[in-house]
Structure formats: structure tokens, C-alpha cells
Amino acid sequence: MTFPNRRAVLGVAGALTLSSCAGGRGLLRPSRGWNGLVQPIVEREIAAGHVPGAVVSIGQGGRRVFERAYGLKSVEPVRAPLDTAAVFDFASLTKVVATTPSVMALIEDGALSLDEPAARWWPAFGAGGKGAITVRQLMTHVSGLAPDLDLTAPWSGEAEGLALAAASQPVRPPGEAFVYSDINFIVLAELLRRVSGLGVDAFAARRLFAPLRMRDTLFRPSGAILQRVVPTARFEGRILLGEVHDPTARRMGGVAGHAGLFSSAADLERYARMLLNGGALDGVRVLRPETVALMTGPNVLPGGVKRALGWDVSSGYSSGYDKAFSASSFGHTGYTGTMVWIDPASRSWVISLTSRLHPDSQGDAKFLRRDLGQAVGAAIREQG
């Protein structure tokens, strides 16, 4: 299939007009309406077999202006339509929705420091030349650690995963290069546990999700919420449902610093609004404004890559939509097909949630995320 170039995609936005659609009174939107911008992109990707369906949420001026579900929630074992209440395997969005803000809460409390060595709290981690790796280097992916733990040998359990992380050997000297690594966030979650006494699941639920009323956001979903969970891929003869897809997190029992979180578009929207409001939502403060600014501000890394703490700002993972929004924008993606991009300058966001691995692990969300992010970003920036 031939995909449109960036000029063609951005052309979908067209002229902007005033709209009161979806609570966006006084805001601007594409002349064809937000659905006229979004639907052709999503339906093209569904027709190409890249994704079975997607939920898209767009915010502007700090409030939602569009939300809609397209396509299917599941293909196997039954075909079922997708709706906006669907709960997705967030994959690497776990890093920035659970682990990063939890670590930042400890930094805000003075219990942890960005520039102290991780080995101060986890002495075993200092082996193999890792004694000087700092919390900041872990959060910006310049620790030099490998992308993932070794999955070629059989192992299982959180203890074994942590032992492998402690024994891992750097593939580059710390601070020398940007190497995106799940091990970084496995280590950060263990530091969180050692400092606070709570696992990342319990800490994030207590400090973030419960106060923000993010009721769909949790690790290892069970019970009634499973009816809303979107399945991922086939594994050992079954379709994974409510069980994390990421093989490392799955081996570690479903809770890890890099993957394992499940959530919905509505909850992710609440989280984005909290960040845009400087750490508070509906009168409840979970982080200070200066903590949010520190977490989301850009750091220029080796090779010209720009990352915030945990978050992406401008790198090979941002697929060009970093340029469609303002220079202060930031976001992240997940392997299952998830994406959020947030722009403080326009108080806007774009959320795209899909289960691109369902059912046979052959899907691909990169065109959906790229073209949707670029088109929405261009439409929002055009009015400024």
C-alpha cells in the first residue's frame, strides 16, 4: 500500500474554523471537523490490516475536543466492536504514566536525588562497571545498559529478573550514547521499592491514580474490568487478555517499571490534563509545578537526541510529530501501539490507543501514530 507523504497528510486539516463541538466552545478545529481529520487516517490503517481498531482523543486548550473509537476491539476468539471505554495494554507508556512520575514524587519529597548513583540504594546493581550510573542517566536512557534483559535462556519471576538486571553489563560507557533500554526502568522501579517500601504498582496507585480518579489504570487487571480489556497477541495457543504482552514484564509476574500497566483513553486524558495543569487536577495536587517542569523539560543528549526525564521530546521514536507541535511538547509510545503526545504551549494532546499486535503479532502502528500526530499537531499549531 502507498502511504501519503507528510504534505498530503497535513493537507487533511484544511482551514480552521470556530467550533463548539464536544465541549470545545470557542476553540478552533479543522473545517471538516476533527472526525474529518482523524477518520481517513484511522480507517486507512484498519483497511490495510495494520490495526484492528483505535481510540483517538484530542485535547485543545486543556479540555477534550474529540474522542472516538474506530474498528474492532477483538478479531479472535470473537469479533467485537471497539468503544471508547476500552482498556489497553499500555506497554512502554508504563514508563511515563507509572514509573517516571512515581520516581519524581520521591525526588520531590527529597527521598531520592537525580544525580545520585543507583547503586547507593541497590549495591548489587553497582557490579560490572555500573557503580556510577545515576538516576538521571537511567531516566534519560544514557546509562549505557542494553535494551532488554536476556530472553534467550529460560527464567521466570521478579527475583530472577532483578538479578539479571543487577548482573547486566553496560553496552556503552554511561553518558556516552542514547540507548533506549527497558532495563533502565526495571532498575528505577526497584529503586522506588527500596526507597519507599512499595512496588511501582502500589506506589503509583496510592500517590497518583487514586487521587486523580484514574479508575481504569492498574497492573494485572482482573474481575469486571476484563470485559473492557482489549486483547493483544496469540501466545502459547491463547489470546492474551489482561496479561501483559511484554515478555520480560510477563516473566516478572506482570508488574515492572517498563511495562505492565493497563489503562483507558479517558484515564490517560486525565493524566495529560494533570500535567498541563502543573501537577493538579480537579483541585487535587499530586506533583508540584516545578516537579512537572523538571520532568518534562528537554535534555540534549549525545547525538542531538532530546529527551525529558522518562519522556521523549525529539528522537527517532517521535516519528516527526514532535515537529508538528511546539518545541515544549513531549510524549511517548508503546510497543502494543499506544501513543500520547502533549503540548503545554497550546495545552493540547493527542492520544492514539490501538492493539496493533492483535491477533497474530503482525500489525504496525507507526503510520497511524505518525500521520495522526502530524495532522493533529499541524491543525492545532495553524491557529497559533
Architecture overview:
By secondary structure, the chain is α+β, with helices and mostly antiparallel strands. It folds into 2 domains: 6-93 and 200-382, Beta-lactamase (3-Layer(aba) Sandwich), CATH 3.40.710; 100-196, Methane Monooxygenase Hydroxylase, Chain G, domain 1, CATH 1.20.58. The chain contains 12 helices and 18 strands. The protein has helices spanning 6-11, 33-47, 93-109, 135-139, 158-167, 182-196, 200-209, 247-251, 265-276, 289-296, 321-324, 366-382, and strands at 16-19, 27-30, 53-60, 63-74, 80-81, 87-89, 218-219, 234-235, 238-239, 261-264, 280-281, 284-285, 299-300, 306-307, 312-314, 330-333, 339-343, 348-353. A 6-stranded antiparallel sheet has the order 5-4-3-18-17-16, sandwiched between helices. A hairpin with a 7-residue loop joins strand 1 (16-19) and strand 2 (27-30). Helix 2 (33-47) packs antiparallel against helix 12 (366-382), helix 3 (93-109) runs parallel beside helix 6 and helix 3 crosses helix 7. The longest helix is centred in the N-terminal third of the chain and has 17 residues, at 93-109. The model is unreliable at 1-26 (pLDDT under 50).
Give the neighbour order of strands across the main sheet: 5-4-3-18-17-16
Please, how many helices? 12
- CATH class placement of the largest domain: Alpha Beta
The chain-level mean pLDDT equals: 92
Low-confidence stretches: 1-26
> What percent of the residues sit in helical stretches (DSSP H or I)?
25-40%
Radius of gyration: 20 Å
The third-level CATH topology of the largest domain is Beta-lactamase
Task: Summarize the main sheet.
Answer: 6 strands, antiparallel
Number of strands: 18
**Large-scale geometry:** globular
How much beta, percentage-wise? 15-25%
Computed structural class: alpha+beta
Q: What is the N-to-C order of secondary-structure elements (H for helix, E for strand)?
A: HEEHEEEEHHHHHEEEHEHEEHEEEHEEEH
CATH architecture label of the largest domain: 3-Layer(aba) Sandwich
Task: Tell me the number of structural domains.
Answer: 2
